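sorry to bug you again but im stuck and you know this stuff better than me. what follows is a protein written twice so to speak, once as letters and once as structure tokens for the fold. mainly i need to know what kind of three dimensional shape the backbone takes. anything you notice is useful, everything is just below:
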Amino acid sequence: MHARHPSPPRLWLMTDERMGERLWTALERLPRGSGVVFRHYRLPLAERRALFARVAKVARRRGLVLLRAGEQSLGRWEDGTHGTRRRARGWYSRAAHSRAEIVAGERAGADLLFVSPVFATRSHPGAAALGAVRFGLLVRGVGVPVIALGGMDARHAKRLRGLGVHGWAGIDAWAG
């Protein structure tokens, strides 16, 4: 797939504005070789680029894969993109919440799919969670690596073993 990372990381951090200063703790807690999806959509572009540059510096030092979410380029340090309309260079990931979105992601050439919400999550209060069984049925036969998202931590990830999941992503699991 990619020379530096032949297969996608199994552990991921999804960043967002509500993390505040906990972002730095989360980046340090991630094991080497993990991935980061940098979102922070609500920041003005100049602030978003500056924060992305700071995150990229930590990612390079720690050997983390860094994906930029959204259409707007944030700097030369990205290892790929997440949720963009079309593939850029490097890793390309998409979010999926249904079988139709999984199929669309595969057809678009995604290298990995973040499927959610698996469990109840603080970032989407009130959203209906899939649960382990429905998640397993949803991702059965998917042709690209699936990353479980939504209320995920190491304990919940164990419940998904054997269901075709490549790895998991979280916010609070890493931010403490």
In short: The helical segments are 22-29, 45-62, 99-107, 131-139, 154-159, 172-175. The CA atoms of residues 107 and 124 lie 27 Å apart. The two ends are 32 Å apart (CA to CA). The longest strand covers residues 91-96.
